[in-house]
Amino acid sequence: MADSDSAPSVHVPAPLAPKKENITPVGSKIVELNESRTELLNRIQGLKQDLQNWRSKLDTQVKVYRDELSEMKKSLNVEVDQLRSEFQELRSTLQQQQDDVTASLKSLGLQDVSGDAKEVQDPKTDGKDGEVHASSTENDSVKEDEN
User: Fold this and answer.
1) Where does the sequence pass through the membrane (predicted)?
2) Is the separation of the CB atoms in 102 and 113 below 8 Å?
3) How far, in Å, CA of 83 to CA of 93, rounded?
4) Quick check: helix, strand or coil at residue 16?
């Protein structure tokens, strides 16, 4: 038995000859891959077209929003200008009324017109009941007259 163990066993591979059966599946695989490639390219083209359409719609929407914002801004600026004009008119009217009151007080012969005008503009009020109180100098002069 030692002789059989020492003899090397040699395995000779069979020659690789191309068989017609092996070539046909490769050809069908190539056809399948080409079809798959064509489908993928078509899908990519479709996705590119969808993306381009989406970008176009987005650009259009952005333009619409910008136009709307521009119109709103113009409208607000017009309203602000109108309000400024109205406030300026009110300021002028109030100034004219104040001047008229001052002139009327002067014509009535009041001596301290500027002091009286200031009291008319900024009367002292009691925070609790909102009544207007005379200034302390007037109260002092009234007390002196009583004495």
Assistant:
1) none
2) yes
3) 15
4) coil
Q: Yes or no: say if 101 and 117 are a contact pair by the CB < 8 Å rule.
A: yes
Can you name the residues that pair with 125 across neighbouring β-strands? 132
Tokens representing 129? 């009941």
Give the pLDDT confidence of 71-120 residue by residue, as tens digits.
999 999 999 999 999 999 999 999 999 999 999 999 888 755 455 555 55
Residue for token digits 């100034």? 95
Backbone phi, psi, residue 124, to 5°: -80, 125
Collapsed DSSP state (helix, strand, coil) of residue 128 = coil
* Tally of CA atoms within 13 A in the half-sphere of 1 that contains its CB: 0
More confident residue, 139 or 110: 110
pTM: 0.44
Cα–Cα distance, 95 to 77 (Å, whole number) = 27
